[in-house]
Predict the structure.
Amino acid sequence: VELTDIQAKLKTSNSWQEKYRQIMLLGKTLPPPAESLLEEKNRVSGCESNVWLTVDVSSSNVDLQLWSDSKVVKGLLAIVLSVYQNKTVQEVKGTKLKSILEELGISRHLSDSRNNGLNAINEAIQQAVD
Amino acid sequence: VICNNLLDGERFIVKISSLIRITSPDMSLKTDFPFFSNNPELVYLDNAATTQKPKAVIDAISQYYSCNNANVHRGSFDKANELTEHYENVRRNVAKFIGAASKDNIVWTSGTTDSINLIQRSWASHNLKSGDTIVVLGSEHHANFVPWQQLALSNNLNFEVIPLSKDGFLDFELFTKVVALKPKLVAIQHCSNALGTIYPIKEMITLAQAQGAVVAVDGAQAVAHLPVNVEELGCDFYSFSAHKMYGPTGLGVLYAKDDIIPAMQPVKYGGEMVDSVSISATTFRKFPSNLETGTPNIAAIIGFDSAIQFISDKVMNNIKNEQKVFKHLVEALQSVPEVTLYGDLEQNVGIASFSVTDESIFDINTMLNESNVAVRAGSHCAMPLMAHLNVNGTIRASIGCYTDTKDIDNFISALKNAIELLKI
């Protein structure tokens, strides 16, 4: 999914219901997880929902695998994926996820704990590429 | 704020207004709480976490700072002496409120967690020896679980956790069997903070004490919802927090029975808890002063007096109504096919704990939050219980004295909308 498409869809959502519906629909685009992703060692701590993450930097471009048991978080992960997937390590390092979420107008819809969860995911990605 | 001899006047007004209430029973207790007029859209169902504060409590705190601020037990002037008298009177009122023999059975703490940790350090760590056993229930709040688990690990004690049944009920037979092993300490909650279950603690205390155990009760979820009499219960310790009973945050109570007081030792040292100090030695004051050092949370204690008064005058008369509202909540939740409720819904202090088929509790909570419904989603500081129920958490809707059926209906309608929205 392209970030610009996401932006367009979220912009035209007038109610919180519609915004969440769009986010959850995005979650459906997340590729189903490999069994190996759902291992305990890949679970991101600091999220209230279960979130699993692997970051592969063995090739020139970053390869992320992400999954959650929450429909809303899955949608947010799809956004994270569209921001980072297949970018170079340098590009990932230079990306400010927070400001992208602010531009999408969804950061205010995230509770503190959910924001912290996204921060935890972002930190885990940034650490892996560092 | 008007500074005069406020207490008698205030009490008088409270009494008059409670008389008026009898003639108009439909009037919601909400009008006593400024929070609700300031947040008219919010459906507040997180009372097990903390309750709102009646105006009388807020006013008492404001009055204290505006008119009567001094330190206690230190002053050599009238203002300080009057305040000290009031402060000790609150201790007397708390003792009376829970049926304790005397104000000298009451220690001020910062909350239930602090009270339980005080039992651990002041009594248990000196009196439990290697090989002794501590028993807790599988539904304990972490505050009544981790202190005992950690003491057991460091002092080589046995730590026995009595599991609930698969659907969250106490197995009394199992409790009887475990207690027959003669534990030295049985630390149990009066009511489950995660499920709301009211345990038959009178019977449990009697059984455990007959086997020689000291019994410490975590009463955090009980005191605002049912009458508690520690003398009748016979427990050795009883802990609770002011903020869960319409009082201020940062204040708790530890009740200790006369027999056990001599075995409790000071754990914090400083001013006011000592009789005399020389370079080589210190002698300590009597209980409870020997466990209270430093300037206490005076404002909270003054505010707490009004909270106790409020509960005695209004909440205890309203228990039947509270139970009616809870029944409405349970029946409404049972009518939603996707909902699974946990624990004892009959003997319950007003907490409905549930999950929703195929949905993350956090997603449900996100949608409820958008609909101005305040509940809690998570493990409720009872992870061992959640693991036992085989869930990674529940949604907890907990009522207070002011919750009405309209709150419940708004919550249920928001819940149904959330479930619909998540079917995607």
